[in-house]
Design goal:
single chain; about 150 residues; mainly alpha
Amino acid sequence: MAQFRFALLLTLSRDQREDAARIMQSAAAKAEMARQKLVQVNGYRDEYRARLTQSGQGGMTVTQWRDYQVFLARLDEAATQQQGEVERLQRDYDRHKAAWQECEKKVKAFEKLEDRHNVDEIKRESRQEQKLVDEFNSRPKTNKGF
C-alpha cells in the first residue's frame, strides 16, 4: 500500500489540535474558577448586607453605619471587578475554543483525505490482484504428469 502523502501534515494537525485542546481546557478551568470566586464575593456581600440590616434593627452608631457602608462599597467594587474578570476569561475561553475548532476542522479534512487514499489503495490493490489472477487463469494448462 502506498503511503498517504499528507501523513506528516495529519500528524502535525493532530498535535496542534491536542495543544489547542489543552489550552482551551486550561482557559475553561480559569473561567470556572473566576465564576466561583464571583459567587463567593456575591455571597459574602449578601451575607454582609443581611448583617447590616440585622445590626441596624438593633441600633448602631453612625460610625458603625459608615464602616458597614464603606465595606459594602468595597465588596461591590470587588464584585464588579470580578464580573469583569469572568467576562474577560470567558472571551479568552471562547477564543481558544474557536482555535481548537479550527484545528479540529483541519484534522477532519486530512482524515477524510486519508480515508479516500486508503479506499483508493484498496481498490488499486484489488484490481492488481484480480489482474494477476486473470493472467494466471488465462495461461494454457500444461499437464506434465505432476
